[in-house]
Amino acid sequence: MPYFVIQVKTLGEDKFKDRAGPVVENESGKLIWPRRNLKIRRKGEWSDSLAPIFPGFLFLDINEVTPDLYLQLRKIPGFFRFLQSNQNIISLSGRDMELLTHFISFGEVVDKSVAMFDENN
User: Fold this and answer.
1) For the whole model, what pTM was predicted?
2) Which ranges of 45-109 would DSSP assign to H, the alpha helix?
């Protein structure tokens, strides 16, 4: 299925996804918000944190963006635009599509990677 890119207010991805989710599901689509699990150190304390991989962007997994769907999404607070533009909505292709499918192959939240180092190497 093709993926379309929606630019939304940065740090407002969660609210937009909650509001737009039912609209998209009615059209047999799905909103995807790729995030990564990080360990962040603040004031000497380590804590787990979720951070978006692509801040300000959500990905719409749907066959086509109909004019009706576009109008419904546009009315939701936090919506900025579709990529390439609202007049020319195109799905991801080529390297961009490969990159997105790589990240979402791990699920919507990518865990920390585990690295092992050999001190003799």
Assistant:
1) 0.84
2) 67-74, 94-104
